[in-house]
Amino acid sequence: MDCSSSCSSSEGHNSPEANFEADTARTPIAVRRALQLIQSDHPDSKLQAARDIRRLTKTSNRCRRQLAEAVGPLVSMIRVDSPESREPVLLALLNLAVKDEKNKINIVEAGALEPIISFLKSENVNLQECATASLLTLSASITNKPIIGSAGAIPALVEILRDGTPQAKADAVMALSNLSTHSNNLNIILGTNSIPFIVDLLKTCKKSSRTAEKCCALIESLVGFDEGRTALTSEEGGVLAVVEVLENGTLQSREHAVGALLAMCESDRRKYREPILREGVIPGLLELTVQGTPKSQLKARNLLQLLRESPYPRSEIQPDTLENIVCNIISQIDGDDQSGKAKKMLAEMVQVSMEQSLRHLQQRALVCTPSDLPIASHASEVPSK
């Protein structure tokens, strides 16, 4: 999120900015002026400094480094009850933190979390959005993750996930996803009953979006616990939302989606096999076995194995191939809309597999035909056609 642009309307047109472009062209001068103003005893000068710092650091990594010493004074400003300075100062801190690990850590160490978390509960929508974006940025730091979690940010972010604006919800789920990589934070998230709100967001967002990716990443982590699995299957359309991402998401989103479904089926195949099959997962899984990431392909095959009538090989006469696994599943869902699509896709997969095998045999023949070639010839070096 570029909270700078989304919150710019709250800045008004009060500040004198006629010479700003000229100052920006001479960055060292503008930086020195901002640092002087932020140390001033005059509230208006400090506020002007916050606005200048926000603009100077919006796209410049160099300015973020040069203005690092402004972190302390800015944090002191947001800790003072001055409503008119909250958004400009928060935006300045947000831009200082972007792509700068040291600034992220310094902002938290300076005591910014308490006011930022309190802003999540503000009735000012712009301030709420900016606070959520700030936590998203700060939570990207490994050092900050446990500190943010223990400061009480997670329940407040879940509240945003429930009641916030669309942009705030998207940023909140990304922040929660960042925080979830720390085990203590994941337990806190699990205890907030967040899955219904994550599912609601997943249902409404574009399945190929970054938001969907982070929703599925969170769900994959949460279904590692019995409470998470129960919550997902209890939520109307919960499993279906994950299946839709498995079919239409980005490569990374689909990996998280199939990982979530596989984790459920591995935990209790009898309990979760039918709810997963009922949502028409087979066509998406078939596609993943061919077009997914290496991890997705393996997970899709493992899930197909678990979804068959028996997870074990049927007999030596009917080898445990992907085709036979899928045929076994299709025989149980015959008559469903997904059955016809799955059969068509399976036929296409068999055709592709045969064509690949034929090309492989032809390449081997090309390499092995000359009798005077040494045995150690490498088929992989034959130019592809």
Report on the architecture of this protein:
71% of the residues lie in helices and 0% in strands. The chain has 385 residues and is an all-alpha fold. The longest helix has 32 residues, at 337-368.
How are the SSEs ordered, and which strands pair?
Layout lengths: L2 H4 L13 H6 L1 H12 L4 H14 L4 H6 L4 H8 L4 H15 L3 H9 L3 H7 L5 H14 L5 H7 L2 H11 L2 H15 L2 H8 L4 H10 L5 H13 L3 H9 L3 H11 L2 H17 L1 H10 L3 H10 L2 H14 L14 H11 L4 H32 L17
Highlighted features:
single chain; 385 residues; mainly alpha; 24 helices; 71% helix; 0% strand; elongated
Could you give a quick summary of the protein structure above?
The chain has 385 residues and is mainly alpha-helical. The protein has helices spanning 3-6, 20-25, 27-38, 43-56, 61-66, 71-78, 83-97, 101-109, 113-119, 125-138, 144-150, 153-163, 166-180, 183-190, 195-204, 210-222, 226-234, 238-248, 251-267, 269-278, 282-291, 294-307, 322-332, 337-368. Helix 12 (153-163) runs antiparallel to helix 13 (166-180).
Q: How many extended strands?
A: 0
Q: Which segments are poorly predicted (pLDDT under 50) over 5 or more consecutive residues?
A: 4-16, 313-319, 367-385
Mean pLDDT across every amino acid position = 83
Q: What gyration radius follows from the Cα positions, in whole Å?
A: 27 Å
Strand content: under 5%
Query: What is the overall number of helices?
Result: 24
Largest sheet: none
How far the N terminus sits from the C terminus, by CA atoms, comes to 45 Å
In N-to-C order, the SSE pattern is: HHHHHHHHHHHHHHHHHHHHHHHH
